[in-house]
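Deliverable D4.2, example record:
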Amino acid sequence: MQTSGEIYWISSRWNPVKTLPCVLVNLEVLLLQNNHIEHFDHSTMQNLTKLRHLDLTHNFLTQFSTQVFPKSLTYLSLNSNEIKLLNYDGLYFPPLLTLNLERNDLPSIDASALILAMPKLKMVRFAGNPIDPSEFRLAVQQFRKHNVSVNGEADEVACLYKEEVVEGVCVKLAPQRKVIREILLSLVVVLVAIAMVVTVWWVFVTINKKC
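Output generated by the structure prediction step:
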C-alpha cells in the first residue's frame, strides 16, 4: 500500500497486517479480512472521511467505537474478532446501513441503543455470540420492529458446534448453558440405555414364559 490521494479502494487480505500504517484521504473501500489486526490508534482513520466500506472479518480486534472508525461508514464487518463489549456511550454512525458483529464474544446486545446510534441501519448480523436466548429474542424483535433485517434462516446444520438456533439465528451457548446441555444429553443417553436394557429384559422374560 502506498499513500496517494487518488486511491479509492484497497484490498489486503490474508496478510500478516497488524496495523494500518498509511492514511489515504480519498479511500472509500478498505478490505482487511484475515489479518492479524489487534487494534487501531484513534488517529489511524481520522482523515478517512470518505471511507464507506470497511471489512475487518477474521482479525483480533477487541473494541468497537466511534473514536476508532470513521462516521462516514455505510458498511462495517467485524465478523470473527474478539469483541467482548460494546461501548454505547457516544456511539454514533448516522449513515451506517450494514453492521456485522457475528462470531465475537458479546454476552449481550442493546438493540435500542444500536438503532439510536445507527438511524439508517437496514441489516445487522450478530449470530455466534454467547447471548442469552431470551435476551437474543428480545433484540431480534426490536430490530425487526424497526425494519432492520436479522438473518433468520439458519438451522441446526448451519450452526457450529455448541451453538443453538434462536429465532432462526445460530447463538453460541454460554458456558453455564453448555454445562446444562451436556448434562441433559448425558441423562438422555443414560435413559435410552436403561430403556434398551429394560426392553431386552422384558423380551427375554416373555420368551421364557412362552417356553
